[in-house]
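Technical annex, item 7. During the second reporting period the consortium partners agreed on a shared format for inverse folding records so that results from different sites could be compared directly. Each record opens with the tokenized structure and is followed by the designed sequence. A conforming record, contributed by the partner at site C, is shown below for reference.
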């Protein structure tokens, strides 16, 4: 389905019981964001998004966290930048030693 419909095409990759798993993550977090801030405390904002801690197809509750929109956006942006950096690294030619240096 297109994004214009307001539904992510990635939703087709989710298991059939995704809404139950998402509700379990929210219940475990008591509806609050689970992100630990740099000062070591937990964000106290209201969470509204379920995120995979380690991206991929592991949809177990241990790999899900309940986040507020700003923390989810920051985490997703960082993951996107990391993926782009990895792709660019593949395009770089390895540096060669100068033939005159032995």
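Designed sequence (site C submission):
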């Amino acid at each position: 389905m297109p994004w214009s419909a307001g539904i992510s095409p990635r939703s087709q990759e989710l298991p059939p019981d995704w809404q139950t798993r998402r509700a379990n993550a929210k219940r475990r977090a008591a509806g609050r964001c689970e992100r630990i801030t740099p000062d070591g405390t937990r964000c106290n904002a209201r969470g509204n998004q379920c995120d995979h801690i380690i991206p991929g197809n592991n949809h177990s509750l241990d790999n899900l966290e309940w986040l507020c929109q700003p923390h989810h956006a920051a985490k997703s942006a960082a993951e996107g930048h990391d993926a782009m950096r990895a792709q660019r690294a593949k395009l770089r030619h390895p540096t060669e030693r100068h033939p005159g240096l032995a």
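The chain has two helices and two strands. The chain has one domain: 15-91. All partners now use this format for quarterly exchanges.
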